[in-house]
Each structure stands twice: as structure tokens, then as C-alpha cells.
Specification:
The complex is a heterodimer.
Chain A (H helix, E strand, L loop, with lengths): L7 E2 L2 E2 L8 H15 L2 H15 L5 E3 L1 H7 L3 E6 L9 H14 L4 E6 L3 H12 L4 E6 H6 L1 H9 L3 E5 L6 H14 L4 E3 L10 H9 L1 H14 L5 E5 L4 H7 L8 E9 L10 H4 L1 E5 L2 E5 L24 H8 L4 E6 H15 L5 H16 L5 E6 L7 H13 L1
Parallel strand pairs in A: 4-14, 5-6, 5-8, 6-7, 9-10, 9-14, 10-13
Antiparallel strand pairs in A: 1-2, 3-4, 11-12
Helix pairs in contact in A: 2-4, 3-14, 4-5, 4-9, 5-7, 9-11, 10-11, 14-15
Chain B lengths: L2 H11 L4 E7 L5 H14 L3 E5 L10 H12 L4 H14 L4 E4 L2 H7 L1 H11 L3 E3 L9 H7 L4 E3 L1 E2 L5 H10 L4 E4 L13 H14 L5 E4 L5 H9 L4 E4 L1 H9 L2 H16 L5
Parallel strand pairs in B: 1-2, 1-9, 2-3, 3-4, 4-5, 6-7, 7-8, 8-9
Classes of the chains: A alpha/beta, B alpha/beta.
């Protein structure tokens, strides 16, 4: 679906928002439609993506890993090499530039682990703006260094102490701020979620990932990849990877966080185990109880720790174009260590979910087949978490 | 005729405007809610909004957020809520409006939820995250069953107000200020202008209620003076509930209600 005018992907998506936000959302949509095909806007964004963020990112053949598994060839789309260490900068540069064109002086954002917050703070610093970032209180403790990074970059972090004190509550609080300061403020949402046009806009800004994969793979073997794999929390790196490839024959797999296992309740696998509902302005799959109360989630990776998912993923699941699998915390740690040891690449725990799936798919594949895995971020931020996990499990 | 519509015609005949009170059900327990409702009725309230808690109340400020969290922690469930409504219905014929978020109705299914709510005595719904564009199924389920009260804001365009007024029954809920519930910013000129504009646009076809940040008799007086047909007070009641021992709650609520209601009698 190129640009759904009503904001719906099948039955998913829409705009379930307080009336106060309607003029702001309309203004955003109008400006996005105006600028997305504007020659100067595209040129400027392209400049920042290349010269500032470091695009294009390599498509790296993970030879050691592939040979160790002994099946299909695994290629890594190296979004971890981008400025800031994650794919998030693709979207924050796009939206910050749009906000600037819209003459918005105040930028707000939410963040889970801090990756989107940091990428927002960087884009704003580069474009001469300041951001205020809402972050769950629990996450500000877990990711202290990212809070400090955002402060150094000139952005202010507001710890959110309501609800479960994590990403979903940070989004709630950002929306409350937006309702209060609607006339002056641009809400720079970090994932392919929320009311229309955010899911489409974030997808479009992230689609550079999939577009590059297509070109790079063609150069390597004059084909499209046989399989494409990415991790899914809100789903921005995944939709950016998948969207340019949905019209090809590639097998597409999204990987959710199974935490302690899908039967444990301690997971964030919305598409694998959720049901339809309305949250954060969109209709989509959610983790909720029988009465529609949103349930608490768990994942070893804070970036996937979210009870909803982008509405286009819900659509791609129901139409069966994309398969959604999941990886448990244990599988993720194994994949994290495997990639680190075989290739010398430390993946973000989020991205390690995709690696875990790639290992399974490669094992069943032929040597002539190619698998592309989006390595959405680097794992330096997670080293402490992994150390803690390993120490605990050795003691156990 | 719906209970809400009847109430507004009854008030018009008496040359009065409506005082609407919001209470979060089960905050901090069912007994408190019942005492509060009794106090409200004693004090002369015209319509009661019962809040049903949602885990993610993104249009609410800290007071109602906290009330939602406490109510959920104390085990408020749909079935329990409906039985509370039944108890209230045995004591009064006053219009009861259910205020919650879209997902609560969506999850059960709009027709099923609305039918069950009507059976126990709910007269209408307020869903702050239900935009008119997404309301088709909700409206068709509510038709001939319940009033659908939509919200408008001081920044809502004239064409949208017309569109929303068409989908609205009972009364039109004008959000007084840019912000979440319970904000205290003082009375803004843009609010007074919005009340006048909306009244002009709707030409008396539907009553206009003003809520969000309305907390004192002075607020009520000013909004009524510029033409509001109803005022909605929420967070101020919840604060009173928080700070009053159970034994004195009913009389304290009645006293505060009386002071507000006085301002709606012309």
C-alpha cells in the first residue's frame, strides 16, 4: 500500500486521537505530502543521510558465520555502522528536517532504550534545534549513559513515572505534552506506530534500507535475496527493510521478542501472541487482557519491549505476505555471542533476534541461496546487560 | 427520548444549566464511589459521568491517571463495574454516562458492550480517543441504544464541528483548554470565544458542555455566563475523594456539589 489516504492498511491503522490533535495531524500530513516529493527537501535529506549519517551502509557477506552454519549465505545490512549506531537516524533526520520546514520550534520525542532519543538529539543538534525526550523512569535507570548522551547533545530528558514506567508510558506522556503544546510542538515519533500519517512516514524514511539492499544484492548476484529477515518491536527497521521487497519473490520474516517464551506471559511478541485493539492512535495487534487492558511486556532488549506493533505489520501478517516468528532471550544471547565471535561484530540485542532466526533459516537453506539480515544497531549499549545475564546464568 | 435529552429539556424549563460530575468508578473502592454518587445527587448534580479505568489514559492528567491506576489495582473489571451501575440505578434515575477509552469497547465488540451497558442503565458514552473518522461501527452499534458524546476542542475547525455535531447525541463536549484533564491554567479568552462560536454554529440544536480544568464555582459561573449549557467537573471531585475520610465523604461531596450547582441556576 503506497499511501493509504484513509490511513488504513486493510483494517489496521487509522487515527484514534483526541480531537485537540486533529489539526496538528492534518498539518503534518499536508506538509509531509508536500515535502516528500519536493526536490530540494529530498536533496537536503540525501545530503545529511550521506555526509552526516554515513549512507549507504554496506551489505556485508558474513562468510565466517555462513560457513560455520554450512547452509545459505548470510548477508548483513550494516545499519549498525550509521552515526549513532542504529537505523533510527534515517527517520530522525527526515522528520527533524520536516519539522524545520514546518517552522516548528519545539521538538518532542519518546524513547525506550534511548536509541531514538539519542538519534533525535543528534538530528536536532545538527539542524540547530533542541529536543525534549520522554523516557520511562525504569529505562532512564537501565540506560543511564544514553540519558547523559542526550543531555550532552543539548536535549532534555523527562523521566516518566506513570504506568509501567517504560516505552508505552513514554509515548503516553509525549502525546499528553503534544495535546498541551499542540500549536508550537512537533512530535518526532520513533517507530512505525501511532496515528496516520506516522506509520507511513516512518516507513518511507526507513525504506532507504530496503532500497539499498535491492541494489546491492543485484550487484552481488543479479538477484533479489531469497530471504529477508529483520527484528520487530514497533517495527521501523523491519518495515523499512520489507516494504521495498514485498513485491519481489523474497521470503520475508519478522522476528519478535519471545522473552522467557510465548507461554510465559513475559514477552513482547505482539503479532505472534496478541489480539486486535486500539492504542496510541492506531488499530493494530496488541498484548492485552480479555477486557482490553494493555499488559506489561518483557524483553532482554529494551527496544523491542512494547505491547503494540506498527499497523502495516499487522496487515502483512494477516495477508500472509510476511511471516512473523520470535526468538527467546536465551536464543538471542546465543546469537549475540555467535556473531560477535565469528565475525567480530557486536549486534544490538534487538538485532540479535534477527540473527537468531537467520541461523535457523540458513541451516535449512542451500549454499546458492542468500539471506539478508538487517543489523539494525550495534551492541555496545548492551554489553553490560549481556554480562549481567551471563553472570546470572552461570551462577544458576 | 434519552434520559440525557430529557434532562436538558427539564432544565431548560426551569431556566437552569446542567452540572455534570465525573467520578472514576472503584477509586479507591466501590463503597467510596457509591457514597460519592449519593453526595452528588444530594447536592443537586444533573448528570453523572462514570469513569471506567484504562491502562493507558493518554488524554488524562495526573489526577485521573492515578485514579485509573488505583481502580485497576483494586480489581475493577467490566462485570464488577456493571453491577455497580445497577446498584446506582436502583437509587436514582439520573442520566449516567460512561467515560473510558476506545479499546475497552472495541475489545468486547461495540454492539455487545453497548447493549450490556444499556441494560444496566448507562445512557451514553464519552471516548476521548474516538475520532469521528473512525466511529462508523461505534455509531451504528449505539444507534437507538445510547447517546454518543463526542469532544471538540478550541482549535477544531468550523467544518469539523458541523461534522462532529452530526455524529453527537446527548451533548457536545467542548474541551476548555489545550491540555489533559485536570489542568489548572485559569480561564482563557480563547475558551470563552470557543464557547460563543460553538453555540452560534450549533444554533441550539445540541447542548454544549464545557470540561477539562473546570474546578471552582467561579469557573462554572464564567462558562455559564458566556453560554455553556453544561459544565463538567472531574479532577476536583477526585481530589476531594482523596482527601476526605469515608465517613464524611457523602456530606462533603454534597456541599461542594451544591456550591457548583448554585452557579447553574439562572
Amino acid at each position: 500500500m503506497r499511501y493509504p489516504k484513509d490511513g488504513r492498511f486493510g483494517e489496521f491503522g487509522g487515527k484514534y486521537i483526541p480531537e485537540t490533535l486533529v489539526p496538528a495531524i492534518e498539518e503534518l500530513e499536508e506538509n509531509y505530502l508536500k515535502f516528500k516529493n519536493d526536490k530540494n527537501f529530498k536533496k537536503e535529506l540525501d545530503y545529511y543521510l550521506k555526509q552526516y549519517a554515513g549512507r549507504p551502509t554496506p551489505l556485508y557477506y558474513a562468510k565466517n558465520l555462513s560457513e560455520k552454519i554450512g547452509g545459505a549465505k548470510i548477508y548483513l545490512k550494516r545499519e549498525d555502522l550509521l552515526h549513532g549506531g542504529a537505523h533510527k537516524i534515517n527517520n530522525t533526520l527526515g522528520q527533524a528536517l520536516l519539522a524545520k520546514k514546518m517552522n516548528k520550534k519545539r521538538i518532542i520525542a519518546e524513547t525506550g532504550a534511548g536509541q531514538h532519543g539519542v538519534a533525535t538529539a543528534m538530528a536536532c543538534a545538527a539542524l540547530g534545534m533542541k529536543a525534549e525526550v520522554y523516557m520511562g523512569y525504569k529505562d532512564t535507570i537501565r540506560q543511564k549513559l544514553n540519558v547523559f548522551r542526550m543531555n550532552m547533545l543539548g536535549s532534555k530528558v523527562h523521566p516518566v513515572k506513570s504506568g509501567s514506567k517504560t516505552l508505552k508510558d513514554a509515548i503516553n506522556e509525549a502525546i499528553r505534552d503534544w495535546i498541551t503544546n499542540v500549536e508550537t510542538t512537533y512530535y518526532l515519533l520513533g517507530s512505525a506506530v501511532g496515528p496516520h500519517p506516522y506509520p507511513v512516514m516512518v516507513r518511507d524514511f526507513q525504506s532507504v534500507i530496503g532500497e539499498e539492499i535491492k541494489l546491492q544484492m543485484k550487484k552481488i548476484n543479479n538477484k533479489t535475496p531469497d530471504s529477508v529477515i529483520a527484528c520487530v518491536g514497533g517495527g521501523s527497521n523491519a518495515i523499512g527493510t520489507f516494504y521495498p521487497l514485498v513485491d519481489t519473490n523474497a521470503e520475508i520474516i519478522g522476528v519478535e521478542a519471545a522473552g522467557h517464551g510465548l507461554k510465559s506471559k513475559l514477552h513482547s511478541a505482539t503479532l505472534s501472541a496478541g489480539s486486535k485493539g486500539v492504542l496510541h492512535g492506531m488499530m493494530t495487534y496488541l498484548l492485552q487482557d480479555d477486557e482490553g487492558q494493555i499488559t506489561e511486556t518483557h524483553s532482554i532488549s529494551a527496544g523491542l519491549d512494547y505491547p503494540g506493533v506498527g499497523p502495516e505489520h499487522s496487515y502483512l501478517k494477516d495477508t500472509k505476505r510476511v511471516k512473523y516468528h520470535s526468538a527467546t532471550d536465551n536464543e538471542v544471547i546465543d546469537a549475540f555471542l555467535l556473531l560477535t565471535r565469528t565475525e567480530g561484530i557486536i549486534p544490538a540485542l534487538e538485532s540479535a533476534h534477527a540473527i537468531a532466526e537467520a541461523v535457523k533459516v540458513a541451516r535449512k537453506g542451500k549454499k546458492s541461496e542468500s539471506i539478508v539480515v538487517t543489523l539494525s544497531g550495534r551492541g555496545d549499549k548492551d554489553v553490560e546487560e549481556v554480562q549481567k545475564y551471563l553472570n546470572k546464568n552461570v551462577k544458576d | 427520548m434519552s434520559r440525557i435529552k430529557e434532562k436538558f429539556s427539564e432544565l431548560e424549563a426551569k431556566n437552569q444549566k446542567a452540572l455534570i460530575a465525573y467520578v472514576m468508578a472503584g477509586f479507591p473502592n466501590e463503597k467510596t464511589t457509591l457514597s460519592t454518587v449519593r453526595g452528588l445527587i444530594k447536592g443537586g448534580v444533573d448528570i453523572i459521568e462514570l469513569g471506567f479505568p484504562f491502562s493507558d489514559p493518554l488524554a488524562d492528567g495526573p489526577v485521573i491517571q492515578n485514579a485509573s491506576t488505583v481502580s485497576l489495582e483494586k480489581g475493577t473489571k467490566i462485570k464488577k463495574f456493571f453491577s455497580l451501575v445497577q446498584k446506582i440505578r436502583k437509587e436514582t434515575d439520573i442520566p449516567l454516562v460512561l467515560m473510558t477509552y476506545t479499546n475497552i469497547l472495541y475489545k468486547k465488540g461495540y454492539p455487545k458492550f453497548i447493549k450490556e451497558a444499556k441494560k444496566v442503565g448507562i445512557d451514553g458514552f464519552i471516548l476521548p480517543d474516538m475520532s469521528v473518522e473512525e466511529s462508523k461501527e461505534y455509531l451504528s452499534a449505539a444507534k437507538n441504544n445510547s447517546d454518543t458524546i463526542f469532544l471538540i476542542s478550541p482549535n477544531t475547525s468550523k467544518t469539523r464541528i458541523a461534522k462532529i455535531a452530526k455524529a453527537t447525541s446527548g451533548f457536545l463536549y467542548l474541551v476548555a483548554v489545550y491540555g489533559t484533564t485536570g489542568v489548572k491554567t485559569g480561564i482563557k479568552n480563547y475558551t470563552l470565544k470557543a464557547i460563543k462560536d460553538v453555540k452560534k454554529l450549533t444554533k441550539g440544536k445540541i447542548p454544549v458542555g464545557v470540561g477539562f480544568g473546570v474546578s471552582t464555582p467561579e469557573d462554572v459561573k464564567k462558562y455559564i455566563k458566556v453560554g455553556a449549557d453544561a459544565v463538567i467537573v472531574g479532577s476536583a471531585f477526585l481530589k476531594l475523594i482523596e482527601n476526605t475520610p469515608q465517613a464524611k465523604l457523602e456530606s462533603k461531596i454534597a456541599m461542594f456539589t451544591k456550591s457548583l450547582k448554585k452557579q447553574t441556576i439562572l
